[in-house]
Write a structure and sequence with these properties.
The complex is a heterodimer of chains A (about 250) and B (about 325). With about 250 residues, chain A is α/β, with parallel strands linked by helices. Helices cover about 35% and strands about 25% of the residues of chain A. Chain A has two domains: about 1-80 and about 165-250, Rossmann fold (3-Layer(aba) Sandwich); about 90-165, no CATH class. Chain A is built from ten helices and ten strands. In chain A, helix 3 packs parallel to helix 5 and helix 4 crosses helix 5 (about 150-165). In chain B, about 70% of the residues lie in helices and about 0% in strands. The radius of gyration of chain B is 20 Å and the shape is globular. The chains are: A alpha/beta (about 250), B mainly alpha (about 325).
Chain lengths: ~250, ~325
Amino acid sequence: MSATLLETKGLCKSFGALQVAREISFRLDAGARHALIGPNGAGKTTLVNLLTGLLQPSRGSVHLKGEDVTSLAQAKRVKRGIARTFQINQLFRGLTVLENVCIAVAERLGAGGSMLRPAGRRSDVIAEASRLIEMLKLRDVAGRRIGELPYGRQRLVEIAIALGLDPQVLLLDEPAAGIPSAESHILLDAISTLPGEIAVLIIEHDMDLVFRFADRITVMVNGAIFAQGSPAEIAANREVRAVYLGSALDA
Amino acid sequence: MTAARQLAERHRFKWWELLPWAAGIAVFFAFPNYLAFGTQLLIAILFALSLDLVLGYAGIVTLGHAAFFGAGAYTVGMLAQHLGWNEPLSGLVAAALVAGAIGLASGYVLLRTHGLTLLMLTLCTMALLEEAANMGAAFTGGFDGMPGLKFAPLLGLFPFDLLFFRSQYLYALLVLLLCFALVRILVYSPFGQSLTGIRENLLRMHAVGAPVRARLVLAYTISAALAGVAGALFAQTNAFVNLGALGLERAAGVLIILILGGYGRLYGAFVGAIVYLLLEHALAKAYPTAWQIGLGVVLMAVALYARNGILGIGDALRRRLGGQRAP
């Protein structure tokens, strides 16, 4: 049994009368390749937002390596190793691909606040960003502005930024949405080169990708955890098939 | 990777960056009768440059930047008037400290907000200061301000001359050069890059672990201090301070300058200030009572057809002429 990296205890979140997370107790182990699935509106993105601190829970707690981080701001959690991508691209649209990744790398290396040396002289930052760009096959567009790129390649920049934070826990919110299926292998390749001890949580609707990627699956329905288990267990679970997988597996 | 090389070389000096300073020196010899105008122009550039740091780079929308200009102007004015502290250079430092402190305090409170709320709050901050200057007549001279201020010669050698403005002009040019060098270093640093990141995508900036608010407050403080220096120069070179130093008209004027020239690009402040002041000068001569109409028309044209200001037009032309060349 490997060590638990990230854990939630009885996490609840309501917006007024609307309960979007109900008593979520969830664990992410070191080295996990964990998929989070469920119908639209099940609360998957909300859970990621609670994990990263973008949202504060109404009740319950989030623990990182055994330490309660529930009250920590987003930026502080990033410093402790939680990185994410967004379901809808959140990039610096007016800047180039390289600059986008450099900003993330500079923050991780603690260079983001340095004022007197030009950013162009931080060859460590630029080299690291270039390495990630290479890895995600973005080299040919490194000098182009985000706004000029097709959506699928922008998605890969999202991943590069998250990897630039050198995370221990990586939360990917529908990373493959919008990437042409012929290119989704770039994404999987990039994830497979990550150090084994990193925990990866992926929200994904593409069941092919989920079953290729995950060694554990959590199914959410209606803000609560509906089922958890290995891919084989989930695939065999009749209730899960009924609420969600349905035709995707019958096919 | 060419993109990496581009990024590594972007902060280097280009030859054309010498032009504004060469022009500044040329004006000193070529137009001795216009040095008073030239001095005001240099001060306007410095003020617009300070605004560019927060508005153009960090994306902080403010309509109250004259608060810091006024704070700087009143600082040197009151020091000279009441304490007899009339040494110009230390006056600039004092003005920067006071304006910076006001920027720090107000920024700490205001920069939790965004957009229109922030716009209104910056406006309110300025109005508070203006009213304080109006009511505190014993210190500030109230509505009349402080006319006839006296300042000691620069470095004890070069007296300010109210008629010919020779020392004032060179003094302002040198201070602008130093402040510009500082801003230029800042915007090309990782700190400056992170400000651009905040402007481009706040959500993402939080998600890469940047201390967003601290960065904004710091940028706001530096910008306020620079605006304070501009205000202090204004008071010293003109030998007076009044409420006009921190009113809405001045705040709007500097915003117009930056929009005209193009924000978030360093040299927009130069181009904008030159065009604005020349337009004002020429139009006021031709139509003394209605010159703002002409300015309004130009501003509308820029807002409608040149969203990135006058320098933006140059960019667009270059892109069109350059055709296939990669940007």
